Amino acid sequence: MNLGIGSWPARRAKVRPDDVCIVFEGRERTYREFDQRVTRLANAFAGAGVSKGDRVAYAGFNHPALLETFFAAGLIGAVCVLINPRLRKPEIDYILRDCGATVVVFGEDQRGNAEELAAELEIRQWLSVDGGGPGALFEDFLTGGSGEPVQIDVDLEALALIMYTSGTTGRPKGAMLTHNNLFYQYVNALIGQDLRQDEIHLAAAPLFHIAGLNMMTLPTFTLGGRIIIHRTFKAAAVLAEMEQSRVTSSFLVPAMLDALSSDPAFPAADLSTVRGFMVGGSPLPERTIRTWQDKKVAIMQGFGMTETGPGVCMLEPRDGLAKAGSAGRAHFFTENQVVDLDGKPVPPGVPGEVIVQGPNVMAGYWNKPEETAKALDGAWYHSGDIAVVDEDGYMYIKDRIKDMYISGGENVYPAEVENTLLSVPGVQEAAVIGVPDDKWGETGRAFVVLAPDTHVTSEAMREELKQRLATYKVPRDIVLVDELPRNATGKIQKHALRANA
């Protein structure tokens, strides 16, 4: 019997086959049509020699083919590997070699890399979603597959998905998620969010990232809602889609919310059908929450990571302002603690490392037993994130352990300083690092990007910080820059800032 994620299209098609499942660039597909395509693709994979446990990679921006590949791989017990299409050739090369992919599906943005890598790697089948490049056309390959139902038993503890972490401190690691991990992630999401069977979900955040895929998009699928897919996020197009298609939900990151609210069409936009946005990726400033509450749009903030599928905790809309800056409380089937260096829980208000336990926590890192043992020490996943929990049990993420620095014997968490800087009018982005100091050991240096047409001096920002933070937390230097260095996933590369400090 197959209770894994690959069986879900057929299960959903049995209930409401004629309901619209996917909308992409003006084309609609029903749940019946989507299920038929997944079945054909799964049979085509099997016909190409893909077996249980084999890895099927997808490197491309948002497209129905991504979801079809994900479900089809799961239907035959293969493992889907989703790859960020913004990565360069050496990064793609490393991931494909590391996971041992047998099939690679690629979008037009990876066509050049695919052509070069096809001559260097022993990949059984290359499939082009948009045409061109090595191998066959994805659509031709899919339609050539049999439409007969797939009869393969898939264990819930078998691997379903490998997602590579961004690798800000070294080579990316492949987080292994089982069918059971994904099932409980979706249950957590459905319990914690106001998703319904009539959902019209806009998937504009990257589906090759764990949160874009798993927080709302696939939970909407399990309910039988409608999923509108945009290849990439473009504020004007997303805002227009929300209004025209009567969108009810979307997963976004804070920068996307700010881009939408800065669009000239925002003040007049009718967003009355939007029930809520799930927001993650970085802390959400109070000003952003208020902007969207004024628009009568509920904001659900979350905290998580690839290794937990991604749910760790969530802040409900009703607590958005009262607990502004908090990541919320644990998901229904997830437990978390904040512990000291000895692994003992710390009292409220005391910083410690976030550790996570639950059926949504990964099985480990692909091909990395030592790093797996370190991360999953004592049956808990050790996140490397520093947080405090208040008296009510709400978690506040302070920083990454590796980013913390010590000034005059006091621990300084850059994220706290960065969040305070973001509340200063005119500040668009901020990153803080620790730099050597003869007197204090280390002190802070902030790198700030100002919003367009604003003029705020470094000294004015320092004076503002002095009113809100302890003196030892205030950066000695504030450097104005045009942009912050980022990796392919959009995360700020603090090691690059340190190298040039």
Automatic annotation (TrEMBL):
UniProtKB keywords: Ligase
Keyword Ligase included in the entry's annotation: yes
InterPro entries attached to this UniProt entry: AMP-bd_C (IPR025110), AMP-bd_C_sf (IPR045851), AMP-binding_CS (IPR020845), AMP-dep_synth/lig_dom (IPR000873), ANL_N_sf (IPR042099), ATP-dep_AMP-bd_enzyme (IPR050237)
Signal peptide segment: none
GO molecular function: acid-thiol ligase activity
Gene3D superfamilies xref list: 3.30.300.30, N-terminal domain of ligase-like
PROSITE patterns assigned: AMP_BINDING (PS00455)
Highest taxon of the lineage: Bacteria
Domain AMP-dependent synthetase/ligase: 11-366
Annotated AMP-binding enzyme C-terminal domain residues: 416-491
Keyword Nucleotide-binding: no
PANTHER family named among the record's database cross-references: LONG-CHAIN-FATTY-ACID--COA LIGASE, NONRIBOSOMAL PEPTIDE SYNTHASE PES1 (EUROFUNG)-RELATED
Similarity field: Belongs to the ATP-dependent AMP-binding enzyme family.
Protein name: Fatty-acyl-CoA synthase
